[in-house]
Each structure stands twice: as C-alpha cells, then as structure tokens.
Amino acid sequence: MSDTMAYQQKLAEKLTILNERGNGVLIRVNYIKKICSDPKLRPSLLTDKIMDPAVKYINKKFPNVDFRGNNVSIQHLTSIQRQKAEVMSAASSYYDSFLDVMEFRVNILSLALSINLHIEWHFPSINFDLTKIYLDLIVTYTSVIIMLSRLDDKKALVGMYNCAYEMTNGTCDSSYPRLSQMLIEYEQPWKKLHEDFGPHTRLVTSAVLSLQMVYPRRNLPADQWRRAQLLSLLSAPANMLDPARCDTVSGACAPLIVCVLPVWPAAVSFLLCPSSVNSHPPSLELWKAALRSGLYLTLTRDEALNIHKVSEEVFDSHKGYGKRIADIKECREHAIQNNGALHRERRGFLRGALKELFNVLEDEPGLLGPKALYVFMALAFTRDEVLWLVRHSENIPKTKTPEDYVDNKMAELLFYMVKLKALVVKHSYVIQRYHVQYLAQFDALVLNDTIQNMYVCPEEESILTSSFVSTLSALSIKQVQNKEKFDFRALRLDWLRLQAYCSVNKAPLPLKEYPDLAKVMNTIQFHTRLVDNMEDLLLETSELSVLCFYPRVFEKMFQQSSEEPSVKRYIMAFPYICSDFICCAHPLCPEESKSMRLCVSSMQQIAKLTANVVLDICAEQCNLNDQLLPKNSAKTISTARNKKLKKPVPKKGEVEMEKPGAESVRKDRAVVTNMDKMHLTLTELCSSYDLCSDFIVSDHIINPAEFLLSHLETRLSEIIVKMANNSPPSQEITRPSDLLAAVRSYSASLHTISGYINLDVSRLVKSILLQQTQPLDSQGSKTITSLYTNWYLESLLRHASGSLIAHSPTMQCFINQPSDSDLSFRADEFSDISELQSLAQLIGPYGLKYLSENLMWHITSQVSLSPFLTLCSLSLSLPLVGGENVLKRMTIIGVILSFKAMAQDCLNDVLHKHCPYLMGPIGSLRDFVSPETDTKVTLNVFELASAAGFSCDIDPALVSAIANKTSVDEEYKLTCLLLVYIAVSLPSLALDPNSLYNKANGHNNNIHCLAVAVNQLAASMFTIQGKDIEQQLEEFLLLASSTLLQLGQTVERVESKNRDSVYLLLHMIVEQSPFLSQDTLEGCFPYVLLRNAYRSVYKSCIVTLG
C-alpha cells in the first residue's frame, strides 16, 4: 500500500475514537440491562399492565409488527395507539442507544476490514500502542455484543418505539429494518461474531501471539517473583539510582500489559477465531495458558463471562473440535485446583513488596524519579490481583479450599496502594523534574542517534521523527521551576500514527527493521506521560472503581478485614478507595449514579468499632476510678483498723478484698490484661485514621474524624443517661456526685484519644454535656436534665409535701422523717450542698432553668384562687373553712421554693468557681436595681441574676408563672384575701403535734417553709398588680401578729402546746423578707415573746454529744 493511502486511512485516529466510543456504548447497554432487570427501576412501558398485550405481541411477531393488519394486531396494539406520544418519548433514549450499537458495529467491521487489508503484523515491543488499542477495540466490541444478547427486553423496546413512530408518521423509522435485523442476528452472539471475525483470523491471531513471550512471565507464581526480588529496590543497592527498565518490552508497556492481558487471548482470539487453536500449536499453548489463569472474565462493571463454559459451547458448535472440549475441562479443573492458592500467594508477596517499596520511597522520595516504573508496575500487579479476587469471590467454584477465595488481609493491600498513589501525587514535582531532564538530555540524544543510523527515512516519517527530537530537545528545567503546563498528547498521537504508517504492507519505513526506534519511542512515550499525564497513568494502573458494582464483595472483604486484629490499622483504605468510583462515569451514560452507600456504611462501621473500644476503655477506667471514691473507703478503713486492733484474721473461705491499684501489679510483663488488649486495638484502629484527614467521594468531602465524633457523641449521651440508672417504679437514681465522678472519668479517658488521633475531644465533651442540659438531646432522647427533674419532683418533693421528708434549714438539705413507710432512698444523700453542686455542674444553668420551670408549674397548680372566691361570700365572723388546706398548699409551695433556693445557691457557687469574672458584674447589676425602678427592667435584670444563681427580691420565674390575663383589681382582691386567710389560719398550726420546732431540722411538718412561700408569693403577686409590696406585707404582719397573740389568751394547754414554735414563724417571715425589718416586727409583736419562744424551744431540744 502506498504511503499516501496509509495516511488517508487514518487508522490511528479511528482506533482511538472508536475505543472511547465503544466504552460508552458498552456502559450504556449495561445500564439499560440493569434498569430493565430491576423491578424498582424497570421502565413504566414494561411494567404497566395496560401495555402487557402489546409487549407480548411485539415479542412474538418481532420484527414484522403490522398494526394495520387484522383485528387481532389492532386489538393488541391499542394501548400504544392511545399513548403513542408518551411511548415514543419514553422509548426514544433506549432506541437511540441501540442505534449507537448498530453504528458502532458498522464502524468496527469497516475498520477491521481496513486493518486486515493494510496492517501486516503486530508485535508489542515494536508497535505496542497499535497492538493494544486494536485488541482493546475487539474486546470492547465483543463485550457490547454479549451484553446486547443478555438484554431480554430489547425487542420490546425497539418494537414499541417503531410502532408508536409509525402510528405518528405513517411510516416506520428508516433505521428500524437494519436495527431489527441486527438484533435477530445476534441472538446467538458467538456464532455471528465468528462470522464477523472469521476473515480476520490471521491478523487477530498474530496480534495475540505476539504476547506469547510476555504472558508466561506475567503468570509466574509468587515463589519465582520472590526469587527474582520483583519490585525490590534493596536487592541491588549499587544500582538504586539507575533508571528502571523492562527486559521484555519497553517501560511504557509493562504496567499496561498487566492491566489488560488476561482478557486478550481468551476473549479475542480463541472465541472469535477458534480455527487458530487447531491449526497453530503456539495458539493452542497460549489458549490453554489463558484458560488456566482464571474462571471468569469481566465484560463490564459486574458482568462476568464464564470463560470455560462459553469456550465449551463455542467449540462444541464447530465440528472437529472434540479434543479441545477435553482440553477445556482439563484447564478448568487445573484452574479450580491451583488458581486460588496461586493468587493467594501472590497477594501475600505483594503485601510485603508494596510495604517495602513504600517505606523506601517515603524515606527517599528522590528515588521516585529513576524508579517511577516500579511504582506503576506494583500498582498494576496489585490492582490485577484485587480484581481477580473480586470477580471470583462473587462466583466461588466448588473446591476443597474455599479459603483461597477469602482474604482477610485485603485492607493491607489496598492501604499500600493508596499510600503509593498518594506518595506519587505528593512528590509529582520530583518525578516531573527528573523526567524532563531525562527526556531533554538523554532520550532526545538517543532518539537523534537512532534516526541518524536509519538507512531509509521517507519524507513524511522524517518530518514526524524530526518533530519528536525538536520537541524533546526544547525542554528545560526552568519550565518545571516556572510551573509551566506540559502537553505531549500531540507527540504520542504522532507516534501512534507512525506505528500505523510503518506497519502497513510494503511500508517505505518498515518498523520491524528498526526495533531500536520503537523501543526508544515507547520509552519516550512513557516518560512523557510521567510529565504531563501522571493522573491518567495512575488511574490506568490502580483505579478500583469496579468495586462499586460489587457491593456484597466490598462489604464482605471489609467485614473480614475488620475482624482481623493485625489488619485493623489498614481498614480505612476501604472507604478511601470509594473516591475512585467517580472514575467509572462516562458521558454517554450520565444516568448511572454512583452511590455513597458503601463509603458511608464502611466509615460508620470503622467509627463504631473505634467508639466501642474507646468507650470500653472509658468504662474500665470509670470502674477503677469508682474504687477510689470516698463512699468505697469504709471497707479499707475497717480492715486497717482491725489490723491495728489485732482482731482475728478472716477465715479461709472469706475472700480478701483487693486494694485499688492491684490490677497494675504484674509478676510477668508477658501477662496481657484486658486493658492492654483494648489499648492495642485502639492503637491499631486509630492508626487507620492517619491515612488521610479527609477525601472526596462523589463531590462530598468525607472527614473520618467527624464520623468518629458523631458516634462517640451518640453513644456517650446514651451511656451518661444509662449511668443515671433511673428507675421510676423503685424511685432509684444515681447520686449526682457519683454521676459527676463517672462523667469526669469518661472525660479524662476520652482526652487520651488525642494521643492516638487528631480529635477535638474538648468540643466533643462540651457538645455532649451541653445537650444534657436540655430536656431532649439531638436524637430526641431524654437527658439527665429530664431524668433528675422528674425524680426531684416526683420522688423527693412529693414525699416532702407529705411530711415524709423534712427540709432542714440548718443543714441546708432534706432529711428523712421517721415513719412506718420506709423510703427507698435517703433524702440527704440527694439534696445536700455537695449533691446539688454536682447537679449544677451536670445540668448547668440551662438544666436548672428547666428544673425551675417545672417547679413553677407545680407551684401554679397549688395557687388555685377559686376556693377563695367562695370564701369571699362568707362572713369572716364565721368559723374558718378549709384553713388547713390553704396552709398545706402554702407549705408545699414553700418546700418547692426552698429547694429551688438551695439549687440556685449551689449553681451560684459553681459559677463563681468557673467564671468569677462574669459573676461579679451580674451581682453588681442585681444590687444596683430595685423594685422602685421600672418593673420591666428590674425583672429582666433579676432574670439574668437568677439564671446565674443569685437570689433576688422578686423571683422572675414565679412572676412569669402566676401571671394571668384577668383584671388587676380582681387579682389584687384575691391576693389580699389569700394573705388574710393565711394570717388568720396561723393559730391552727399550734394544734398540729408535728409543728414542734427543732433547731437542727426546723418544724417537722415543714411549716417553716411558709416564710419563703409568703414572701416570694406576695412579692410576685403584688409586682404583677403594681402594688406596694412593703405596705401589703406590713398589713399581713399586723394581722398575723394579732391572731397569734390570741394564742396566749387560751386557757387550755393542749391547744397551745406548740404555740412557741408557731411564734417563730413571724420572726422567720421578717428575717427572710427583703421588704420587712425587725423594727416593724417589734411594733406589732412583743420581742419578749419571741425571746421566750426561742428559749422554750431550744430548752426542749435533746442535745447529744459524741
């Protein structure tokens, strides 16, 4: 063929374009197959019951579907006639996709014919790119046809579109006859493919046979790899700086052959051109080697081809191939028996080889320049092994050693793949700088010398080769330093063109006679890709996007790796490789979505594993810390005291209690405790987080640390609530001090994680504790604020309202009263200063505000003024009705307000320790305002001060709780009547035997809390009504004094036996009121009576010492 004809054919351009187009068509056909086979995604045309008759009729009559014929056809196709526009719109994309397949087939067969007529031979060390791209195209075409044959609904989709089209336009689509004929012809794809490629047997066979020297080396067992020290930089230290080369083919070929070689012989030559197996012994040997290398080949995505089954069917359909069927069965048995172990050993070798390679290059990144080929070969070998296992894990054959198809250390292999890729990207400047100099100062000179030594060089070829030399010679190190962008795509395309020009029959410049030129140019091509196309080279040799189509295999491998203790540090590689999933997207199939489910699920599993270990360590540390609490020191003190007093030693049956810290004493360091195992596991898991701080998957930034923080936050919130140990039926709950100690222990243990992983533990703890100050956390679950609020209201204060628990003003806590019904808890253990301070630290100001709001709700339920409306109609001269009920309600209100005041004081103490600089200004602001100023401003300031724990003259929470929309005058009358009713009812308290005052515990029936109730309730009510609080309280004091003085006039001792204890109420009201003074009291109640009352009460108290 003449030179001009070779140029006009443009074989290189056509091969390149058709390869890219073929990949898109293949992906599109696969996508259509997936959605048609998925009930959830299946097109509505095929799922609509109205269309069922039409679909069945079209499948039966295809391709001759005549809707103008008899009544039967019209009846079946009525549904399409009614919805022809909708059918055309819905089926058009599928119809166009099948047209793309038809056009692709036409172009392929045309190009194959041209290549068969013009190209003479193939040999990878000479025209590697041409050979690879040609065989890739044949494999892609074969895969498209096989996938088309697997699509069951193709006739229905094409037939429905054509019927709708013909009904609309009056004639069928112009492409329909050829398309329908193609669909029928390829119902038996292998038979038709054999007819298509039968004329090209010589060329296809020669292309595949050119790999017969490479393929055996590619399939060497791990032992031979190990003896040859494959991928080792340390095997020859003296040659460490020498550029890496490949003995068999040029540097550019090595990684690429690894990626595609397993598909070539079986899928291209011996299935499409079976005659070469019988007629050519080298073909037979290569065919057997290919059949022994595996059981399944990948067509696309997760679609695999059972190579032995298909080969047996193909050879069985041809006469004279009986021996070949026996060979197929023998190869299949060989593959089943040996392949699993072979690939398992390879993966074991590659784990060590990649680790060594990464460690050396990480320590000396300058070696990436001369040894870049080693990295890409390592990545390609590893990727090939991973994909082999993925294909076969989905279809494990019946074998005696199924464990060969299970790899619980796959994470380590993926981890070092990721690390090597990251290392190349990080030091890409080193690789680029090295190879720019290599191209300009070595490759250009060698190429120039090679061209000068050529005895024949036509004009067109001379122009191309001269442009190669001039392009490379113009390179300089300054271009790298100036960060200029390199683009050698034109040079590589020209080299592909030159291969095509020089491989035709009777070429003026036969490339086979100049192998040195081919080797130099192949090397140059690889070096140029390292300069301007490194990302694509990494993708070509290491991307694992096919894993997104094997979710079961992915999850199975991840689960196996996560259960292996020695591999936990590598499991982050599984979610990280999900960043490769975007690489499998293609413009011809944008609908194919890449879900993040695998990435998110694996990240959540890793975070869950890490969180479980962290919280187990925290729980163990909490148990150890609990042993050091004061409440557990009694046994130790008792034991020490018994030893000091020389009491008898315990009997042999009694187990001696171990002291705290005994778990750290070891006689042998080889003894491994459970804590050691947990810390080791934590170290392994946290090491996996060092792989990367974040990565991108489908345009989403994945931050592994945030997943861990999220799991820790959720789990720790659950644990804190669980440690509260709340049981409403038994009225049990953990003491706030014990829970605070446990929370502090957990917090201290969590901070140790920062030694393993860069984690903001402080933010985590603050977020969790802040959520616990609200009634519900971010998950909508109850918090300790809700639990403690309910417990104090329903258990402690409810019993206090029934006089089973008394408020002790001296001890500033609640104490149990002796009674027949024993309580399940001691009130002082939950209400003393230390416990309430612990509660304030746990639930904070927000939690205490929520507690206060609930307390106010209970107070408003007690302040029901409706009974007093009835009393207003009664004459005050009549005997009092319901006085005990009023005083009982006021006592309950006083108990609630006393508890609130105690909690507020403890909050104030806690805040003074945490933020004294803030508490000072708030206290000064509270002291600055007074009720005489603007009421709204005063209440706002008091609300701020109350939230900080300061006591205020007027309780803003109580004001807000009891405020209502009734008329002010009516409220004022009822409030005054309430105070009058309380004042005139006070003498009745002397009749209650529980009204006796105790200097330690106050009144047994908690009537000393009336002082708080009267002062706070009156101040709040009169503030709402805008009245003078001091004046109203003075009037109340005068009335109360006059009624109590009448107690002294009673003759019967029985009625006045607790008179002195009741007298003290007046002093308490004045003492606790910011609006009354002692002078006011002395003006209406003789001080001598108070003095005598205190003396009488204290004289009756029993004093115990020691």
UniProtKB/TrEMBL annotation:
Organism lineage: Eukaryota, Metazoa, Chordata, Craniata, Vertebrata
UniProt protein name: NCK associated protein 1 like
One Pfam family hit: Nckap1
Organism: Gadus morhua
Region (Disordered): 642-662
BP GO terms, sorted: cell migration; cell projection assembly; cortical actin cytoskeleton organization; neuron projection morphogenesis
Domain of life: Eukaryota
Listed Basic and acidic residues bias regions: 651-662
InterPro entries: Nck-associated_protein-1
GO cellular component, one term: SCAR complex
